């Protein structure tokens, strides 16, 4: 099962998405929160601002590459978004390590926005999860396809087949059709945090991680972009040193990030709104149905009403692989509970995660938001 390596695949086409109630689209991701700034800016009638922000957005179209063999496009008022953080070491990201030739999805979250858009469920997918990766289309303009694999690490889907292959892998695993895709990289992440003036967190214990260059004593800290990136990349010094502990830190940070956006006046201060929107639209790579200010406005409208208390975050139920303790595998019955609940637009039952290796250990209590 040869893995044909590819850098970020950019495949363009259009496709349908679920019909949404007017003004009710909300999602919880760092990238999507930055897009929320477009709502008021675009609605202000400032043509130049609209045009400039529109020029910042570089979208990626994935629907043609996915083809017709996809889960049913259910129209029940909910919405599903795959959010990936790219670990490319090229360009401005080179300071974080050597580029081995292709980017991988360092962070992956499936965001389910429930009908009515007052609640959201987020499922983090560990990058080291061994999954069945389906056959994927090759790069744009290439007739070659990328072979599937039975026990492939989840983050190799993006590496060998780009965004479309990552989406296809999640859809095969969950049985849920993704309505949208959003990607953010290291450099864009840092700039967005700095534009917001940092994010305030409280650490309950010392975090001392030489790999991520993060050194924090217990107490309250305002993290700039560099330190925020260090926090969400910290792994070796928290929990059992695996990606599962890092996911808990990421989830805690996202909730703190939401609080920060709500508290700095992004939605009431026109200049701050524009600055965040300008930085945010440069930081993200959305799918082709969100690659304009108008589309992002529709997507983000009402986002400011969704607070951290409205979001339920879990890690996909996994257990350590008996054949390789450095990898995890999905717990089939528990994962099926999660995906079934989301397909039916219901809350994820607590029983689905009680036996999972994720969402356990001390890492989740290390960071608190105000």
What does this protein structure show overall?
This protein has eleven helices and 17 strands. By secondary structure, the protein is an alpha+beta fold. The protein has a domain at 30-189 and 283-344: Nucleotidyltransferase, domain 5 (2-Layer Sandwich). It has a six-stranded mixed beta sheet, with helices on both faces. The chain has a three-stranded antiparallel beta sheet with strand order 12-9-17. It has a two-stranded antiparallel sheet with strand order 4-7. A hairpin with a 6-residue loop joins strand 2 and strand 3. The longest helix has 21 residues, at 243-263. The chain starts with 29 loop residues before the first helix and ends with a strand.
Overall mean pLDDT stands at: 78
Give me the strand/helix succession.
Answer: HHHHEEEEEEEHEHEEEEHHHEHEEEHE
Question: Distance between the terminal alpha carbons, to the nearest Å?
Answer: 48 Å
Going by helix content, strand content and strand pairing, the class is alpha+beta
Which residues form runs of ≥5 with pLDDT under 50?
A: 1-46, 89-102
Let me know the largest β-sheet: 6 strands, mixed
């Amino acid at each position: 099962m040869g893995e044909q390596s590819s850098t970020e695949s950019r495949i363009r086409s259009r496709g349908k998405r679920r019909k949404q109630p007017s003004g009710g689209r909300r999602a919880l991701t760092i990238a999507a929160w930055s897009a929320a700034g477009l709502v008021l800016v675009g609605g202000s009638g400032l043509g130049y601002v609209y045009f400039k922000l529109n020029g910042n957005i570089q979208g990626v179209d994935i629907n043609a590459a996915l083809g017709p063999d996809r889960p049913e496009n259910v129209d029940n008022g909910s919405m599903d978004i795959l959010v990936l953080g790219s670990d490319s070491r090229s360009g401005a990201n080179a300071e974080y390590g050597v580029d081995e030739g292709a980017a991988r999805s360092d962070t992956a979250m499936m965001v389910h926005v429930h009908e009515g858009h007052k609640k959201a469920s987020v499922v983090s997918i560990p990058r080291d999860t061994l999954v069945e990766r389906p056959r994927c289309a090759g790069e744009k303009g290439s007739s070659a396809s990328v072979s599937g694999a039975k026990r492939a690490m989840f983050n190799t889907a993006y590496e060998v087949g780009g965004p479309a292959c990552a989406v296809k892998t999640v859809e095969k695993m969950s049985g849920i059709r993704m309505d949208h895709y959003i990607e953010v990289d290291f450099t864009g992440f840092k700039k967005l945090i700095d534009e917001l003036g940092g994010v305030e967190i409280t650490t309950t214990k010392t975090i001392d991680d030489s790999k991520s260059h993060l050194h924090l004593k217990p107490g309250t800290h305002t993290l700039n972009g560099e330190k925020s990136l260090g926090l969400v990349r910290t792994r070796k010094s928290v929990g059992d040193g695996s990606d599962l502990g890092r996911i808990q830190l990421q989830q805690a940070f996202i909730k703190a990030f939401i609080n920060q956006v709500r508290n700095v006046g992004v939605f009431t201060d026109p200049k701050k709104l524009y600055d965040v929107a300008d930085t945010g639209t440069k930081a993200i790579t959305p799918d082709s149905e969100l690659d304009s200010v108008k589309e992002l406005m529709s997507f983000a409208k009402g986002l400011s009403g969704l607070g951290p208390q409205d979001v339920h975050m879990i890690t996909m139920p996994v257990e350590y692989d008996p054949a390789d303790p450095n990898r995890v595998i999905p717990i089939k019955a528990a994962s099926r509970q999660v995906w079934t609940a989301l397909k039916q637009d219901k809350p994820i039952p607590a029983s689905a995660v009680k036996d999972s290796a994720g969402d356990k250990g001390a890492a989740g209590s290390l960071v608190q938001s105000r």
